[in-house]
């Protein structure tokens, strides 16, 4: 009897202990080890748009620095009272999500991703690196994704490297190289991607123009002489269009539950000065109907002073930007035209700078739904708008600043480079009257990549908001 | 694969090759003897003592009245051997006359028996390591709803961090954090069954501090609890022994003659303690101005949820409840305190036990109803436990234990930090000082601020988190006596539970206008099957050997399923389908399996020298096949010097030295070998995949912990003083760490396998009876422990200097190379060469761009002292415990200074508080001498303050700030909010009256006692203002970050125990 029990127990035990394969048990049932190129592409486009258009990098930082928006409460970021924990999103998402996913596509064998996927991945990766270096300065570029503690490269190295990367992207992209799915922006239209590549090359050419004019000129020529051309209409504009909750525009999602921002008084004043018809698109009338006009919030006020302006008596950003399906514009036709105008003005390429400047403004009007030719020509013929060939930076800088409304990171970069319009730091700001010239590196760099970080700031200068970056000469 | 299997087959062969013998003898019926066994001193009957006739196998147990009866073939006179745990063995020669045998209590350590690893009982003197035990009485009387809290201050080397609030988790750490990244909680084993102690859903932005799973146990069921401190004591438990083991033995029906019924009822009252100290001079608003219109910016500063507003001097101002009418603006000093209720816990237990020669059983039922201090919070828990054994035949015994636990919490209090919809303390650290809480209580639809919050009662009653947990813990086991000295034990045990949470946010909640609903469900299963052979043999008069060999198969699995309707379609219907958006959902499964074989041997020489050896090999599914098998040994010994060298005297009773070395291995979590990609919510029909941002490691090898321990134990003056000291040194290396890496490496974290951490420390226990008479006894029990840790390396290339354990409010908790574990790393003030804080031209302090180590959360030492005074049937005890050293970062102080609600923001606010006069020249604040008037009749402000610092050139700061600017100035400077965590608490006072047994019996009971107890009574000392420095964030390793924790509670309980 007992023996029988013992035998049965042992038999059962032997079965349970010997029938499972320990390797099989440890196979992850929750996620895949083998991703697909179109799904990664969709992911990077969506996450890239969120990054560019979302709060941390846009309306809680760069959009305030360039005085497009202002805070009406919790004004710390508007007063530049921020810390090295404030700018971690761009770094972390840029590298660990966007660049890593794009590198995954680039490293796929040909049967998992055709060369068009790779061309697109290289283009988007270059755009991401560009955002990073524009904001922080020196960044890990050559060793990014290769080492646990990658060394930083200078801006010069990064920009020139990106020009090479984009040149290569252009050769990878070809309508004959296979179809691409998962492309929510251009729907697989490779000709548009090729235009975007050239527009980005032109953008970078101007970034380095104050430092490396010869290189900049060559890059501008390369970009504009490429057979594929640059962005040539508003339908070529590189923008990510949201749908509805939970896939809604990040600014729209923010305003659904919170009420922290107003259009900046600086911008409203400028638009009023220029009688700019974009004002009703850029701003809403204050909710208190008795005000009856557009009123911006001043930047850089103390919390109570900001509050005292009145939530109901100041203008929120326009509904164009706050509906759930509002697009995240990343590279516009208008910007390309401004860049062409500047490249002509600098003598890099031939053309009519004034005409390109006017076309750029017109493209911006069209982008925001203003198409009436008479309205546009009235605007362009104002003395305060007319292209000033003797000070192209002022004309282009001011109009580009207006056209970039909502694209905080690029507005911030181009404002630093062109130095127009002249902005004044708000009264309660904490940088001794200065406006930031860059983002702090994430504080975690000090603990996680200390040696590389120290080497980088030894060259670039202290890790302060006011340290000027290489491209930003003045 | 087949080849691998062969490794296990030896176990099977070994098992099969054993024959099973049964043996029986029958006594001849002849002589009769009656007797009673009593305590020689108290004269109380000794129940359940074993009485054997010397030289035979015939023995009986004493009954309830200490009586026994023999009917044997043995001729008088013969010798009886009487023994009972805790008493000296007695031998008496008997004739046919009834006999009374008095037992003397054991006064030395020579025969004390303790439970060791795998539930094996051993003589304590033979062990080369420390164990420490607590009895039921020390755990149960104070009725903590998380019974781990009851252990605080009572065990040397055991650090228990109490729950925040009254329904949260408790963290237990034995001998410091030996794992840099992993779980540092000990393994819990209940009656041989490893039991899960996870705290599910506490990570990643959860807004509740859920109880850790071990809190499910009913302390009434616990007979004793033994702590095996670290690998030396716990080596046989293998992988999970590195952090120590808590062995819990539950009550059984053994020794219960006849039917015994116990009844216990208790009530506990809880009050919140350590609320922040608020100021009552200034109300809501900013720059001294406030007027309410809509609570979101429509009036003057009425969207501002800070208290920098007008003086609370009764001036007339429209407020949130007054419909625009100007009403007196006055302080409501207790407006936060009055939100909290007095908590009440009802606890009732009944148990029935019985035993006879062949069987025993115990059935216990416990019901606990807790109404918490946060309004509407409630937890109900019912435990049913059974423990039964049956002797099938002479050599074979089978048994079963089972514990069925149902926890039903209709609403749990909001947790740390928390979101605006459900957090409790978040709103209160911004709460306008003029707010009348009764106005909010009476109308949940209005609130004092509509920019950010809903009415706190709205949150408490409508935005609830509920939890239901159904759990079964149990085993079946078989004990067989195979031959003289050779026994076999087989056990298969399971711990299985479902845990379901429902998160409701009501339609119309501020910040979540459409409300939301989520369900989060967990299923956890831990299964262990083990077989153990034990063999005991006396080799000669001097030598004994005790050997053990066994195997274990462990399977652990958990599953999670989460679904959320992010915005409800219609109000007040909480279903997943009532959603206007696509659902967000996720699920995950995890499973691991470990095969183990182990053996141990103990060699004894002349009852005073012992050598213990253990060995174990594990095969874990979580490691790559090449590294899957790992072996680890341990050795320890003890020498009773008092016996070996004949040192025993009137002064010295006992002297023992001990020492040991051990190694344990540890596996990884499941699925750590291959890097994966995650799915995100598809966009408009397009699936999204993205990097998991975590680089895994296909070459993982097991972690190893090596520990050396030495100790000394002594007792003096007939055990009036007992002393135990231990020193240990533990090195844990090849630790599997998910280190945070710079994102520019491509991943936010990478799994490495190199970390090394050293922990060393001492533990002292002292137990003395300064006064001991027949009626009066005073006992002092003291424990002290000191642990020092040092993170040695993180990676072999030495590229990585820091491992981030956690982050809150800009402060990281790091394992930093060369530092003690748990460094608080954050922003410091910028200081000049002389250590002065540097301010800018604006008079505001500057932050040092270089972050700094600001402290460590681990204390330097902890200790507790319990005094117990017994007079006849009255027993009074009080426990004071202390945690000295260590720092914390306080989010409450940081936010409270910013919002101006704390009393500590009063200095400088107005002339009456020492504020300086100034006026505005343009926008520049300009200091005025007292009494002077401003040029041009400009307004003079009297709340000026100057930050104590210097300009960059070294000259003292002269720029005046408003008090509001002053107190906000350090918000982003973590250093300003680092405090010492040192505290001394009067933890427990307890008064018990044991009804005299004779008296009890007269009124129909076998025993009765009544206990009144108070817990967490008050701080004798603490440094950190406004908070309880002890509060745990959760059970994880990221401690030292206080963030708007719920106030801890002070509990008073009354408890009645009756035995029938």
Automatic annotation (TrEMBL), chain A:
Gene3D superfamilies: 1.25.40.390. It holds the Pfam family SusD-like_2. PROSITE patterns: PROKAR_LIPOPROTEIN (PS51257). It comes from Flavobacterium panici. The keyword Lipoprotein applies. This is SusD/RagB family nutrient-binding outer membrane lipoprotein. Keywords: Lipoprotein.
TrEMBL record, chain B:
PROSITE patterns: TONB_DEPENDENT_REC_3. GO terms for cellular component: cell outer membrane. Residues 124-245 form the TonB-dependent receptor plug domain. It is a multi-pass membrane protein. Belongs to the TonB-dependent receptor family. SUPFAM superfamilies: Carboxypeptidase regulatory domain-like, Porins. Residues 440-829 form the TonB-dependent receptor-like beta-barrel domain. This is SusC/RagA family TonB-linked outer membrane protein. Keywords: Cell outer membrane, Membrane, Signal, TonB box, Transmembrane, Transmembrane beta strand, Transport. It is found in: Cell outer membrane. It comes from the Bacteria. It holds the Pfam family TonB_dep_Rec_b-barrel. InterPro entries: Beta-barrel_TonB (IPR000531), Beta-barrel_TonB_sf (IPR036942), CarboxyPept-like_regulatory (IPR008969), Plug_dom (IPR012910), Plug_dom_sf (IPR037066), TonB-dep_OMP_SusC/RagA (IPR023996), TonB-dep_OMP_SusC/RagA_CS (IPR023997), TonB-dep_rcpt-like (IPR039426). Residues 1-22 form the signal peptide.
């Amino acid at each position: 009897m007992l023996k029988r029990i013992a035998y049965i127990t042992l038999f059962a035990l032997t079965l349970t202990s010997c029938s499972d394969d320990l390797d099989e048990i440890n196979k992850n049932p929750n996620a895949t080890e083998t991703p697909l190129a179109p799904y990664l592409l969709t992911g990077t486009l969506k996450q890239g748009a969120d990054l560019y258009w979302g709060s941390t990098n846009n309306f809680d930082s760069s959009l305030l620095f360039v005085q497009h928006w202002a805070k009406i409460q919790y004004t710390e970021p508007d007063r530049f009272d921020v810390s090295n924990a404030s700018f971690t999103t761009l770094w972390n998402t840029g590298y660990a999500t966007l660049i890593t996913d794009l590198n995954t596509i680039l490293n796929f064998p040909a049967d998992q991703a055709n060369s068009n996927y790779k061309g697109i991945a290289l283009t988007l990766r270059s755009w991401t690196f560009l955002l990073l270096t524009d904001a922080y300065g020196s960044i890990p570029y050559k060793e990014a994704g290769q080492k646990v503690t990658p060394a930083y490269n200078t801006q010069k190295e990064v920009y020139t490297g990106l020009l090479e990367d984009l040149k290569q992207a252009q050769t990878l992209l070809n309508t004959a190289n296979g179809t691409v799915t998962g492309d929510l922006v251009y729907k697989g239209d490779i000709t548009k991607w090729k235009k975007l590549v050239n527009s980005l090359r032109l953008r970078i050419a101007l970034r380095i123009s104050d430092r490396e004019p010869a290189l900049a000129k060559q890059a501008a020529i390369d970009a504009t002489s490429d057979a594929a051309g640059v962005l040539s209409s508003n339908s070529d504009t590189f923008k990510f269009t949201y749908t509805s909750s939970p896939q809604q525009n990040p600014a729209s999602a923010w305003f659904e539950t919170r009420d922290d921002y107003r259009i900046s008084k600086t911008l409203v004043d400028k638009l009023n000065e220029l009688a700019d018809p974009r004002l009703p698109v850029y701003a809403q009338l204050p909710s208190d109907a008795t005000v009856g006009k557009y009123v911006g919030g001043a930047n850089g006020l103390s919390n109570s002073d900001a509050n005292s302006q009145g939530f109901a008596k100041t203008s929120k950003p326009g509904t164009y930007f706050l509906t759930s399906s509002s697009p995240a514009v990343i590279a516009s036709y208008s910007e390309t035209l401004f860049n062409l105008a500047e490249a002509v003005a600098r003598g890099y390429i031939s053309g009519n700078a004034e005409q390109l400047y006017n076309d750029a403004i017109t493209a911006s009007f069209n982008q925001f739904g203003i198409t009436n030719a008479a309205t546009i020509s009235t605007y362009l013929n104002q003395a305060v708008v007319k292209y000033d060939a003797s000070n192209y930076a002022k004309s282009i800088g001011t109009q580009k600043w207006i056209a970039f409304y909502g694209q905080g990171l690029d507005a911030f970069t181009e404002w630093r480079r062109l130095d127009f319009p002249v902005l004044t730091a708000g009264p309660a700001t904490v940088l001794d009257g200065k406006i930031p010239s860059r983002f702090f590196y994430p504080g975690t760099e000090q603990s996680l990549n200390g040696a590389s970080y120290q080497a980088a700031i030894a060259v670039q200068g202290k890790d302060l908001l006011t340290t000027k970056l290489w491209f930003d000469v003045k | 694969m087949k080849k691998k299997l062969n490794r296990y087959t030896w176990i099977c062969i070994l098992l099969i090759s054993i024959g099973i013998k049964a043996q029986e003898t029958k006594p001849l019926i002849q002589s009769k003897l009656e007797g009673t066994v009593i305590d020689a001193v108290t004269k109380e009957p000794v129940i359940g003592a074993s009485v054997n006739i010397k030289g035979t196998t015939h023995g009986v147990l004493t009954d309830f009245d200490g009586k026994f009866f023999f009917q044997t073939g043995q001729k008088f006179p013969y010798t009886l051997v009487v023994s009972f745990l805790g008493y000296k063995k007695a031998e008496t020669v008997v004739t046919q006359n009834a006999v009374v045998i008095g037992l003397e209590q054991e006064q030395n350590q020579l025969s004390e028996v303790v439970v060791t690893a795998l539930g094996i009982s051993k003589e304590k003197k033979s062990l080369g390591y420390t164990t420490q035990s607590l009895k039921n009485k020390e755990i149960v009387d104070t009725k903590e709803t998380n019974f781990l809290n009851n252990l605080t201050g009572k065990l040397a080397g055991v650090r228990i961090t109490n729950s925040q609030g009254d329904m949260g988790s408790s963290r237990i750490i034995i001998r410091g954090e030996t794992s840099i990244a992993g779980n540092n909680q000990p393994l819990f084993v209940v009656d041989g069954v490893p039991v899960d102690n996870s705290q599910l859903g506490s990570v990643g932005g959860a807004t509740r501090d859920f109880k850790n799973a071990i809190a499910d146990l009913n302390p009434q069921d616990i007979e004793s609890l033994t702590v095996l401190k670290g690998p030396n004591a716990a080596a046989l438990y293998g992988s999970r022994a590195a952090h120590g083991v808590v062995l819990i033995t539950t009550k059984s029906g053994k020794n219960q003659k006849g039917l015994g019924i116990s009844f216990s009822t208790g009530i506990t009252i809880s009050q919140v303690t350590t609320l922040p100290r608020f100021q009552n001079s200034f109300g809501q608003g900013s720059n001294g101005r406030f007027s309410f219109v809509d609570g979101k910016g429509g009036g003057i500063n009425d969207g501002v949820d800070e208290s920098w507003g007008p003086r609370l001097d009764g001036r007339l101002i429209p407020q949130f409840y007054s419909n625009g009418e100007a009403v007196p603006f006055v302080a409501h000093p207790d407006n936060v305190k009055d939100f909290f209720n007095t908590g009440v816990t009802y606890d009732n237990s009944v148990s029935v036990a019985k035993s006879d020669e062949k069987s025993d059983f115990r059935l216990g039922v416990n019901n606990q109803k807790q109404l918490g201090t946060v309004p509407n919070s409630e937890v109900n828990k019912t435990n049913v436990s059974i423990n039964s054994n049956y002797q099938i035949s002479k050599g074979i015994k089978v048994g079963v234990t089972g514990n069925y636990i149902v926890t039903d919490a209709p609403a749990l209090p909001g947790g740390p930090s928390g979101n605006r919809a459900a957090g409790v303390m978040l709103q209160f650290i911004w709460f306008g000082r003029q707010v009348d809480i009764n106005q909010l209580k009476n109308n949940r639809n209005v609130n004092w601020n509509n920019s950010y919050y809903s009415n706190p009662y709205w949150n408490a009653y409508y935005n609830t988190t509920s939890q239901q947990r159904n759990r079964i813990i149990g085993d079946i086991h078989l004990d067989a006596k195979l031959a003289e000295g050779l026994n076999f034990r087989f056990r298969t045990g399971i711990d299985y539970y479902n845990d379901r949470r429902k998160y409701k946010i009501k339609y119309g909640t501020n910040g979540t206008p459409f409300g939301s609903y989520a369900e989060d469900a967990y299923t956890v299963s831990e299964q262990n099957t083990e077989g153990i052979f034990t063999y005991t043999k006396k080799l000669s008069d001097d030598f004994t050997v005790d050997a053990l060999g066994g195997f274990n198969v462990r399977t652990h699995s958990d599953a999670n399923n989460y679904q959320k309707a992010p915005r409800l379609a219609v109000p007040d219907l909480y279903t997943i389908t009532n959603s206007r958006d696509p659902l967000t959902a996720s699920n995950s499964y995890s499973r691991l399996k470990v095969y183990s074989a182990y053996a141990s041997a103990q060699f004894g020489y002349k009852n005073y020298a012992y050598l213990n050896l253990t060995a174990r090999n594990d095969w874990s599914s979580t490691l790559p096949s090449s590294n899957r098998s790992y072996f680890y040994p341990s050795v320890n010994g003890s020498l009773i010097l008092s016996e070996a060298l004949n040192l025993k005297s009137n002064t010295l009773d006992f002297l023992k030295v001990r020492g040991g070395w051990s190694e344990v291995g540890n596996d990884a979590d499941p699925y750590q070998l291959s890097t994966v990609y995650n799915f995100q919510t598809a966009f408009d029909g397009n699936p999204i995949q993205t990097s998991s941002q975590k680089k895994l490691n296909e070459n993982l090898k097991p972690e190893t912990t090596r520990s050396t321990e030495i100790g000394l134990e002594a007792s003096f003056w007939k055990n009036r003083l007992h002393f135990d000291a231990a020193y240990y040194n533990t090195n844990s290396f090849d630790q599997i760490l998910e280190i945070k890496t710079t994102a520019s490496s491509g991943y936010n974290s990478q799994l490495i396998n190199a970390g090394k951490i050293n922990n060393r420390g001492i533990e002292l226990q002292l137990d003395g009876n300064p006064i001991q008479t027949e009626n009066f006894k005073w006992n002092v029990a003291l424990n002290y422990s000191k642990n020092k840790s040092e993170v040695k390396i993180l990676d072999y290339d030495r590229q990585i200097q820091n491992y981030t354990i956690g982050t809150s409010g800009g402060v990281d908790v790091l394992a930093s190379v060369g530092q003690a574990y748990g460094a608080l790393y954050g922003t410091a003030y910028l200081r000049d060469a002389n250590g002065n804080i540097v301010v800018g031209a604006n008079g505001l302090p500057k932050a040092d761009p270089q972050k700094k180590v600001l402290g460590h959360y681990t204390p330097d030492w902890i200790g507790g002292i319990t005094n117990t005074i017994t007079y006849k049937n009255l027993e009074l005890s009080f426990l004071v415990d202390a945690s000295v050293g260590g720092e914390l970062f306080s989010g409450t102080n940081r936010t409270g200074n910013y919002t101006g609600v704390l009393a500590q923001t009063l200095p400088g606010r107005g002339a009456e508080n020492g504020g300086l006069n100034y006026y505005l020249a343009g926008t520049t604040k300009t200091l005025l001498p007292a009494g002077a008037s401003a040029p041009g009749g400009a307004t003079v402000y009297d709340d000026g303050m100057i930050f104590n610092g210097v300009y960059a050139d070294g000259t003292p700061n002269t720029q005046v700030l408003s008090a509001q600017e002053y107190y906000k100035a350090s918000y982003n400077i973590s250093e300003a909010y680092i405090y010492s965590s040192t505290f001394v608490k009067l933890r427990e006072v307890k008064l018990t009256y044991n009804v005299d047994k004779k008296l009890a019996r007269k009124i129909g009971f076998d025993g009765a006692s009544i206990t009144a107890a108070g817990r967490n009574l008050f701080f004798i000392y603490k440094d950190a203002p406004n908070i309880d420095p002890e509060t745990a964030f959760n059970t994880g390793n990221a401690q030292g970050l206080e963030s708007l924790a719920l106030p801890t509670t002070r509990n008073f309980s009354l408890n009645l125990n009756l035995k029938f």
